[in-house]
Amino acid sequence: MAFQNIGIIGAGQMGCGIAHVSSLAGYKVQIYDLDPDRIQAALATINGTLARLVAGEKITDEERNAALSKISGSADVNDLAPMDIVIEAATEDESVKRKIYAHVCPVLKPEALLATNTSSLSITRLASATDRPERFMGIHFMNPVPVMKLVELVRGIATDEPTFRAAKEYVASLDKTVTVSEDFPAFIVNRILLPMINEAIYTLYEGVGSVDAIDTAMKLGANHPMGPLQLADFIGLDTCLSIMQVLYDGLADSKYRPCPLLVKYVEAGWLGRKSGRGFYDYR
Ligand code: CAA
């Protein structure tokens, strides 16, 4: 399958990152979001992340301008019609994703590949909410997308081989490394990473150490680039909770029980960096 046009559903932090790397790789990118203000904010963010590369002499000004000229944003779903690969990067909520597929599928080309950037949900179950389970799969980018080298690929039970090969080719063209995960709750990275973060929150909850002690311990004692509480804020505490909930429900093991402190923070609207407050204060 020859593909040139990448559609992105959702102008959040993952959507911005996927647009950034896809445009630099030469694809035309169409971002779709219901909220025009979010689209404007996303275009400004991508402008900023590309400018950072120019400042660091990683790309030239011309390359930045070429990448920017390839990105459009719109709140009109019909603008996704010419897209070859469409990646849904909406919020980690199954009912929201199902509604999006019902809205978007009728406008897509029959041969278009539809992928989800879900970090935990069943690909097979999400595929069943589309009109193309054989051309549906998981393409899971890591945050921040421009920096992280890994992308997890996940087939649903019905995903066909041409779809898988096209996704693999697309990811390779972004100069990222692929790992393949079976369709289990939270796949590989989050199956391992999120219980570690949840445990760090239990460590705080039980008073074993302060926020600073826990993060310093893991940064200097285990060489992690960020401490687990800082990373939780970076990922978003609502996303962390929803991934833990998927692990707890899907694997039915008490070791995945979300820490009550994580639940309480999310209930308070303390969602980490994006809300201005989490384990740290960003205001
Ligand atoms: N977008 C683009 N580039 C970015 C960026 C962003 N949001 N944040 C940082 N960078 C770039 C910087 O431009 C810089 O590039 P150069 O080296 O070329 O100058 C480089 O990354 C390092 O940035 P900084 O010096 O500003 O900061 P740092 O050294 O502290 O690195 C970090 C920042 C890359 C985020 C690093 O702290 C890190 O790797 N943290 C861990 C991130 C991680 O674990 N991500 C996975 C999350 S889990 C996930 O994504 C799965 C899921 O589904 C939840």
Write out key terms for the chains shown:
single chain; 283 residues; alpha/beta; Rossmann fold; 2 domains; eight-stranded mixed β-sheet; 11 helices; 3-hydroxybutyryl-CoA dehydrogenase activity
What does this structure look like?
By secondary structure, the protein is an alpha/beta fold. The protein has two domains: 177 residues, 3-Layer(aba) Sandwich (Rossmann fold), CATH 3.40.50.720; 82 residues, N-(1-d-carboxylethyl)-l-norvaline Dehydrogenase, domain 2, CATH 1.10.1040. Strands 3-2-1-4-5-6-7-8 form an eight-stranded mixed β-sheet. A hairpin with an 8-residue loop joins strand 6 and strand 7. The model has no long low-confidence stretch (mean pLDDT 97). Bound molecules: acetoacetyl-coenzyme A (CAA). Acetoacetyl-coenzyme A binds next to helix 2, helix 7 and helix 9.
Topology:
Blueprint lengths: L4 E5 L3 H12 L3 E5 L3 H20 L5 H9 L1 E4 L10 E4 L5 H11 L8 E4 L6 H5 L8 E6 L8 E6 L5 H13 L3 E5 L7 H17 L5 H12 L5 H8 L1 H15 L8 H8 L16
Parallel strand pairs: 1-2, 1-4, 2-3, 4-5, 5-6, 7-8
Antiparallel strand pairs: 6-7
Helix pairs in contact: 1-2, 2-3, 7-9, 7-10, 10-11
The chain binds acetoacetyl-coenzyme A.
Acetoacetyl-coenzyme A binds next to helix 2, helix 7 and helix 9.
Protein name: 3-hydroxybutyryl-CoA dehydrogenase
InterPro entries: 3-OHacyl-CoA_DH, 3-OHacyl-CoA_DH_CS, 3-OHacyl-CoA_DH_NAD-bd, 3HC_DH_C, 6-PGluconate_DH-like_C_sf, 6PGD_dom2, NAD(P)-bd_dom_sf
Keywords: NAD, Oxidoreductase
